[in-house]
């Protein structure tokens, strides 16, 4: 019984990445990002425009970039609008998801 309770209490930790976000929740929230950054997170959906490949990127970089777009410290109208709709938790989750993707 104690073992089962311990496993139930530990289960949420398994869903967390080393970066502190939940990659499963990040994958769900990433759907709006996929329109430009690609379905797999690392393919460029619109090759005519420079859209960075973000799959496999370090989580702290993703967090830093999204926070900078959200605050306006980093300028890009589309990214500012997208990042403004994200909570701190969303940003952590998306970063955890992307950091687990393979880079191209």
Automatic annotation (TrEMBL):
InterPro entries from the UniProt entry: Cyt_c-like_dom, Cyt_c-like_dom_sf, Cytochrome_c_Oxidase_Subunit
Domain of life: Bacteria
Domain (Cytochrome c): residue spans on this chain: 21-102
Pfam family, one: Cytochrom_C
SUPFAM superfamilies reported in the protein's UniProt record: Cytochrome c
Statement: the UniProt record of this protein carries the keyword Plastid: no
Any one Gene Ontology molecular-function term assigned to this protein's record: heme binding
Keywords on record: Electron transport, Heme, Iron, Metal-binding, Transport
This protein's record includes keyword Metal-binding: yes
Protein name listed in UniProt: Cytochrome C
Native species: Salinisphaera orenii MK-B5
């Amino acid at each position: 019984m104690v073992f089962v309770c311990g496993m139930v209490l530990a289960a949420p930790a398994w869903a967390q990445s080393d970066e502190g976000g939940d990659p499963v929740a990040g994958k769900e929230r990433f759907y709006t990002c996929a329109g430009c950054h690609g379905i797999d997170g690392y393919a460029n959906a619109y090759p005519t425009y420079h859209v960075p490949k973000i799959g496999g990127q370090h989580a702290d970089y993703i967090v830093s970039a999204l926070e900078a777009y959200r605050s306006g410290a980093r300028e890009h109208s589309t990214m500012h609008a997208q990042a403004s709709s994200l909570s701190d938790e969303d940003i952590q989750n998306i970063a955890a998801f992307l950091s687990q993707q393979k880079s191209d």
